[in-house]
Amino acid sequence: MDSRFDVELVSVSKRYGTTLAVDNISLRIPAASYCCLLGPSGCGKTTTLRMIAGHEAISSGDILIRGENVSDLAPIRRGTAMMFQSYALFPHLTCLDNVAFSLKMRGVGKAERHAKAREFLGLVQMGDFVQRLPAQLSGGQQQRVALARALIMRPKVLLLDEPLSALDPFLRIKVREELKRLQRELGITFIHVTHSQDEAMAMADMMVVMQDGHIRQAGSPREVFERPVSPFIARFIGSHNVLNGPDGLIAVRADRCRLGTPGDGPFVNGRVTAVEYQGAMVRVAMATDPGTEASALVPDREFYADPVAPGDPATLTWAEQDAHTLMDA
Amino acid sequence: MSTTTSLGHIDMPRPRRFALPIPRLPGWAVSWLQVGPLMLILSVLFALPTILFLVVSFYDYDRIGIYPAFILDNYRDLLTTPATWRVYLSSLKFAVIVWGVTLFLGFSVAHFLVFHIRSSMLRTVLFLLCAIPFWTSGIIRAIAWIPFLGRNGAFNQILMALGATHKPLDFLLFSDFAVIVTYVHLFTLLMIGPIANSLAKIDPALIEAARDAGASRWRTMVDVIIPLSKTGIALGSLLVFTQVMGDYFVVKTMSGGQSASIVSMLSTEITAMQYPPASANAMVLVLFVAIMVACMMRVVDVRKELVK
């Protein structure tokens, strides 16, 4: 049975004793999409991923993969493959045997599984390292082997637990391009757990922000960034100011804020606390008079035309249409 | 507006050199100082006695004394006596059976403690339960089996009370069975320790990764857990094997004199003051155990694994 959704979570909960790690979440991930589960540590994102993988039993609810209820199936019968945060390569096996492991478990003959494993190691540009042991590889290389080991299972859904967290920043940007390209080429769904909103915004077709075991907002990165629904989301995805508006709290993007003088539009007074040069933009952090923090991302040319320094009084202004009201905290 | 700063004229602190008044020792002297203590202990307590045995094993002897010589009679007598072969074979039989049983038990217990006990508190308590009996002397623990396994012992009485047998079982005590039971009791911990240590080093994510790839419990065991714990298995095997081959007391007490051990053979010769044949016997035992250990090392290079 086919479905428009690769993964569906229906009222899924996970209880450990009396604590609720995941509280009654529902989510539909469209076919062949890159989905990022985003949230601070302890928000339940990894537990959710592990429940989809079948490494964590669900306490209540159902998980469907391409329309089939997999809630009670073993990981191998779900059509998922997981790439672990620590990569979890078998230290006693060569790259070739690591990648061929799942085929060996299925009873595929040695020559055939090794040929297949070579093909997948080639796919991740690790064809020259087939006989190496994991300990003889760099972190980035180990990750490629782990990816090949997951992909050789031909999963319908690839699950990635913080895949980029162990890499240095330069490699991280390169690898995220590759993961995205791979997802597009393979045409399968990737579910990627991360605590970095940069990563999620750069990669996701669908971004799911979680907090305290709940899904707080799900949508395309642009939707989430343009219209964060709550102060938590606005603060978590960053580059947003949460300010007092006429009908409660409002969010305004920092790059839509300017330093200026009180005029017709909304404004808030305060004092500059920090100035950060970021290249194209300069970030001016302020402590506002009502006692909150706010910042403005000002294009460099505009900033240096009328620079401010920490300690200077300043007024933050924005246009009425750039602010939108938030649900209460 | 200038945003450039130059580090050019900031004085960086130079790495400080410690100028000690004592002259530096040359590299070779440092190395000798480092290996010295161990070398001293090994030479005085191991190498010298072994060389002494080696020398004496070629001596001549009679009922009165021993005489420096270089004769091979001691070895010839030893290796041509059927009794020697019988004793070696019987010790080897014990060693292999005990090795098999302790390996199975030790691995199961270690696996249970490491992978099935979630609370570290409970795990510590259970480990202690395994280890505390080791704090008493092995002789006491061996003797403790006698009232349990004896003809009118606790075990026979329980069996008879349950109606499982109406006549006390005789094979329980003073038999090979009693020897093996005692060995297993004495030496299982020697397996549990090293194997649990190896198992504890296995990243639990590896087991999940195996499961994710479709491995059954059995395949996970064979393809992941056992290969990754082979250092512990080899170390434990080594300990158990050498303990059984070097045992004297358990065989003597628990077999009721029906079985002999290599060391009891040695001991008989020593009480008869036949030092040269006893030395020859000791040399053969050392060589035999060394060969067995070398065979195990061929399977698992424990040295290489320990460095990791």
Spatial order of the strands forming the largest sheet of chain B:
1-2
Q: Would you count the extended β strands of chain A for me?
A: 18
Shape of chain B: globular
Radius of gyration of chain A: 23 Å
CATH class of chain B: Mainly Alpha
Helix and strand composition category of chain B? mainly alpha
C-alpha Rg of chain B (nearest Å)? 28 Å
Largest sheet of chain A: 6 strands, mixed
Q: What is the H level of CATH, i.e. the homologous superfamily of chain B?
A: MetI-like
Strand content of chain A: 25-35%
- Helical content class of chain B: 55-70%
Distance separating the two termini of chain B = 56 Å
Task: Note the main sheet of chain B.
Answer: 2 strands, antiparallel
Q: Give the tally of β-strands of chain B.
A: 2
Kindly name the structural category of chain A: alpha+beta
The H-and-E topology of chain A, N to C, reads as: EEEHEEEHHHEHEHEEHHEEEEEEHEE
As residue ranges, the low-confidence spans of chain A are: none
Q: How many individual helices of chain B? A: 15
How many separate helices of chain A? 9
How would you describe the shape of chain A?
Answer: elongated
Number of domains of chain B: 1
Provide a concise account of the structure shown.
Chain A has 329 residues and is an alpha+beta fold. Chain A has nine helices and 18 strands. In chain A, a hairpin with a 3-residue loop joins β14 and β15 (281-288).
Describe the structure.
The complex is a heterodimer of chains A (329) and B (308). Chain A has 329 residues and is α+β, with helices and mostly antiparallel strands. Chain A contains 9 helices and 18 strands. A 6-stranded mixed beta sheet of chain A has the order 6-7-8-3-9-10, with helices on both faces. A 5-stranded antiparallel beta sheet of chain A has the order 13-17-14-15-16. The longest helix of chain A has 18 residues. Chain A is elongated, with a radius of gyration of 23 Å. Chain B has 308 residues and is an all-alpha fold. Chain B has a single domain, classed as MetI-like fold (Orthogonal Bundle), CATH 1.10.3720.10. In chain B, 69% of the residues lie in helices and 1% in strands. Chain B is built from 15 helices and 2 strands. In chain B, strands 1-2 form a two-stranded antiparallel ribbon. Chain B is globular. At the A-B interface, strand 6 and helix 2 of A face helix 9 and helix 10 of B.
